[in-house]
Amino acid sequence: MSSRDLILGRVRRALGTPATPDTYDHAVDRGYLREHGHRTAAQTVDLLAENLADYRAIVHRCTGGELAGTLALLLDQRGTRSVVTPPGLPESWLSETDAVRVPDEVTNTPAGLDGVDSVVTACAVAIAETGTIVLDGSPDQGRRRITLIPDHHICVVRVPDQVVSSVPQALERLDPTRPLTWISGPSATSDIELDRVEGVHGPRTLEVVLVGGA
Amino acid sequence: MSGTFVGMPAFPKAAHEAVANTTLRANLKHATHTIRDKRAKAVAELDDWALLREAGKQIKDHTLRHLDTYLVQLEESVTAAGGTVHWAADADEANRIVTRLVQETGESEVVKVKSMATQEIGLNEALEEAGIAAYETDLAELIVQLGHDRPSHILVPAIHRNRGEIRDIFQKKMGSWGRPAPEGLTDTPAELAEAARLHLREKFLRAKVGISGANFMVAETGTLVVVESEGNGRMCLTLPQTLISVVGIEKIVPTWRDLEVFLQTLPRSSTAERMNPYTSTWTGTTDTDGPQTFHLVLLDNGRTDTLADDIGRQALRCIRCSACLNVCPVYERAGGHAYGSVYPGPIGAILSPQLRGTASDIDASLPYASSLCGACYEVCPVAIDIPEVLVHLRERVAQGGPATRQGNKVVLKPAKGHAAERAAMRAARWAFTHPAALTTGQRLASRTRRLHPRTLPGPGRAWSATRDLPAVPAEPFRDWWQRTHGGKETDK
Asked: How many CB pairs under 8 A join A and B?
C-alpha cells in the first residue's frame, strides 16, 4: 500500500462514519469585522503612514509631480550608486537620478544583486491597520529576489487607490496564484530575549513613498 | 517523533534540575514577561478578537473533520501549480524522501527555514548521516545549532540563552561553520543580529536547495504560507533552485479567504506584532521567479492517531504561535528542555504524548506538567482547551484504555506508578457510598487531629514533600451543618 493510501485510510478510520457533508459556508461564523473602526480614505492613508513608521519604515509623502525628485533625493541621501529596477517601473520615476540602473533580469545572480545599493518598486496593495505593503511580482515590482538582497528598498504606494484598511480587504484584492511578499517594516528579529531588533537578512532600510494627487 | 530526546527523564526530574538553574530562570522570566504584556496590548487593539478566535477554531475543526477531502484537494491543486506531492507516514519515511530529493539535485548542503515539522522528525541529523550539511538560518535556530543545544521554545528556540551567552557561542563557534564572528563582538542585540547576517549571507547566496515547513496550506489554491521576521525565510524560499517543504497534514485551511483570520491572530499571538515583518506565499512554481522545482512532503507521524481521539484531536488546531508557553507558570520556571520534546510548554504537554504515545517515562509524565490554571486556554488563538486535554490524557495514563497507535486501535494498560493513587480513589469511592462509615471516619479524624503527622509516611512522602497536608477541622462539616442548621443558628 502506498503511504498516500495508508495516511488517507488512517484519516478516514479516525473520523469514523463520514460526517454529513456540511457545506463550508455554514461551518464558520464570519461575524468578525471586515475593518476596525470607521475612517475616510484620507484617514486610512494617515493610519498606514503611522503604522509603517511604528515598525521603523521611513515614510515620505509627495504628489505625482514631485515623485521623480523625491526618489532622486532619497537615493542621493543614501549614497546610492546603483539601483535595481523592475521591468515595468514607470520610466518617469527615475528620470531625475544619476544612479546606475540594474534591470531585473533572470540572469542576475544573487551575488550580483548583493553588490547593488538600492531597489525601487511599486506595490500591489498596502494595509493601513497593520502597516503592511504587499508585492505580487507584477512588472512594476519585479522578481522576489530584487526586494530581498539589496540593503535599501524604496517602495512607492499610490494613495489612496492602493490602500485598504484591513487584512480581509487585502486578501480580496490579491491573486493567490502569484508569489506574494507581505512586508511590515524592515527585517527584524525577536530572537534575542524576545525583544524586537531591526536589521537581519532582508533590507535593513525600508522607505515608503506615499504618492497622491497631481 | 524523532529520537533526539530519547532517554529524557520524566518531567518532574528534569524540571527539578532546571529550576535550580538561576540563569535559566532569570532568562525565561525576563523574556516571557516582556512578551506577555505586549501580546495583551496587541490583542486588545482588535475589538473582534473573540470572534476571530472562534472563527479560527471553526475553520480548523471543519478542516479536521473533512481532512481526507482537503488533503486530496490540496494534492491536486499543488500538482496543478507545478509542485510534486509526497506522503510520509512517519519521521523515517519523511527523512528518506527529503534525503533522496536532495541527493537527486547533486548538492551536499541545504539552507533551512525554521520549521517545527523538520525538528520533530530530526531531519538535520538524518541529512548529516547522508553527508548533507543542513544550515539553520533562523537566528535562534542558528544559536541552538552552533551551541550544539536543544530548542526550548516553539518560536524562539534559544529563549533560554541571554545576550551574553549568545555572544560567547558566536565567538567560539561561527568560525568552524563558515564566516567567523566579527572581531570585538559585543552583546548588543543589534551587533549580534549583524554577526548572523554576515555569517549566513554567503550561505544564502550560494544555496541551491532550500528546506522549509509552512504555517498554512490552502487546499483550494495549493498555496503555501510562511510567516517570519528576519528575511531568512524569504532567502530560503526565493533564491535556491529547489524548494522542499515538509508540512504536517493538519496545516491545511480550505480557502484563500481563511487566511484573513489567521494572518490577524497569529502575529499578535506569537510576537505581539500587528503584523510580522515578512510573510511569503507561493503556489507551486512561478516561471523565472524563485525555485523552479517544488516538492511538498505531507507528514503524518502520529497526527492521524491524534485525530482518532475525540477530545485530544483539538491539539491539531494548533498554529504554533507559542502564546501558551509565554503565559504558563510551569514553563516559566521549568524551561522548555524539561518537556523532552521539540514541542514544550502546555501545547507540548498535550501534543507530544499524543504524537508519540504515552509509553515512555517522559511522555507519561507530560500530562501532569501543569497546574491546570487555564491561562493557556485563555490566550490560545484557536481556543484549544488544553486543561481539558491534559485531564483526559492523565486519565489515559492512570487508567489506560483505548487509543490509536500507528493507525491501529490498541488498549493501553494503566501505568504502574499510579497504583497508590488508584487504591486511594477506590477507598474514597467506598467511603463516599457508605455514609455511616464516612461519618465515623470523619469524627475519628477530628478527634485525633493533634496526633496527625505533618508529612505522609511511605509512598505518600513524595506527595507531601512539596505540599502541606490539609488541616483537619475540629468538627466535621456535616456535624456542624446539623448542629447549626447550615449556620442559621449562631454557633454556641
From this structure: 260
